[in-house]
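Hi there, hope your week has been kind to you so far. For a while now I've been wondering how a particular protein folds. I'm sending you its amino acid sequence along with the backbone structure tokens. Could you read through the record and tell me how the tokens relate to the sequence? Take your time with it, there's no hurry, and the full record follows here.
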Amino acid sequence: MFKKIFNRELILELLNIIERPMSKTKDIACNICVNHGNEVYNGEKMIAPAASRNKDPILQVLKRFIICDIDQIEDESPLFLEISSGTGQHVAHFAPHFPGVKFQPSEVDKNVLGSLTFYATNCPTQNILKPMIIDIQHKLSYYGFDENSIDYMYNSNMIHITPFECTIGLFENAGNYLKPEALMITYGPYSKDGVITPQSNIDFDASLKARNPLWGIRDINDLIKLGDENNLSLIDTVEMPANNMTLIWKKD
């Protein structure tokens, strides 16, 4: 998400604002709960309630778009790269449903590698690869990826809590490193035609900008333009709980 490595307090602050609760309140809630003694955060398993809520609705969308007929990973298995994996709960929930897909989690913050590694090593289907440190503002070749080598890229709840340069990096990398006709899947809150709805998202956007003026809910039209610049077409928009959307992008 950022080049900067966060301290523990900032990690908890970011995870605390990733997503609004599903109830129709103006509060922003995503507290971290770790079942390990009296420690708030121990660098291992982390649990974000927002990820616990949204992981299954997102999975139902993925089941519509991920194609894989094999039941274990092989050399030619599809590669699913997750950018900004956070706690690791999403990839841990998705991977067992696609045992023939290789899931590659990544983060820019080394302090969550313990949590990502916990979820990866405890995956019953053993198809989650070792987590990587990736700053999406860098070219993926810097991390060993070849152009036109990735079958799926997935990014959840990053675009609105990072400077827009990170979104530019995400789209540029997708345009270069996805295979032809491969998919990028993004999840989060978005505006349309410059309008943010409903009121809870307006309040959320204001709270983001109050924390960092470079953050904020992005407009789908701006993302479509960015996609056009990087040979990516928006092929589907799926309404999700908590006033979020899943956007499906296809490489031309």
Notes: Strands lie at 79-83, 102-104, 106-107, 132-133, 150-156, 178-188, 190-191, 218-219, 232-240, 244-251. DSSP finds seven helices and ten strands in the chain.
